[in-house]
Known about the structure:
This protein is α+β, with helices and mostly antiparallel strands. Helix content is 31%, strand content 27%.
Amino acid sequence: MIGDRLLSWMSATGSGSVRDLRRRVQWMARTSDADHSAQAAARWVRDMSTLGHCEVDWQADRWSIAPPALAVLPCSDGRAALVGSRRAALLDRLEGSSLWIEHLVQEPSGDDLPLPTTVLVSYDSYDSLAAEAVRIGAAFGGCAAVRLAARVPRVVHGAAAAPPPWSSTTLERFEGLSRPYFRPEAIPAGGRARDGLYRMEVLGRHAYLLMRDGAWHHCGRAEGVYLELARWGETTLRYRPDAAGYPESGSLFVDWGAPLPLLQARALVLCSGKVPRFGQAGQTTIYGNVPVKVAHLVADTLMQKLVML
């Protein structure tokens, strides 16, 4: 599949420019019926980072492949996912190991380019899985989802920032989870802006600033949205336990207007090894196989109260 070919190329290359990677994703999309827009390519790169296959520094325009690792999936009857680099030699060693291997196709969202196949392995014990990881040349990640969720710090704003120019014609303010999420905002010359999350266009890209108590701060969109929701006392995280199987696992629902920061999203994705589904009717992002413990940990980092369904 195209997603597997791109991951193979990234594994062999190691690192590079995000701009170049996005161009290659667009070129591959043009060879199929997939969406080859710049926005679709950016979503694909972001999903690859969320899955743990690579690290991306958007500001520095750099990406790097993550080392290969076997990450235990919670509540999964002894299965682990292969994340990170997939060089041909490692895949050959994996196929020759004593592990039972399962390949799951990740259905793309809409017309987006397909992501790489999810590679799952079954194991008898942590010790045996750790030994096989060493044998094939991968790290043993343990239950990375739980460990990451427990270590992610609470969202905070960034360093002090210069105010937006009062003459800006692209300045908008976050107004909540109903579309449009951002609405035009004008700051009069010499006037003071209201507390809130703002965005404006800088060199053709959105830049985000947070106003707090008369001071401007740099801030990512996701972090800023959750800081605003906390200020308003609103929640967007809802949890539904599974009807069958493991009673301590379930699905976490997040409104489209409040996308999760990278580390929180990665902790949830590492519960299943797959990117979330999208619920069109409720306009929600749905993360599956999430232990309630992980859901509570993630909610706490976002200053959210988890709503149980």
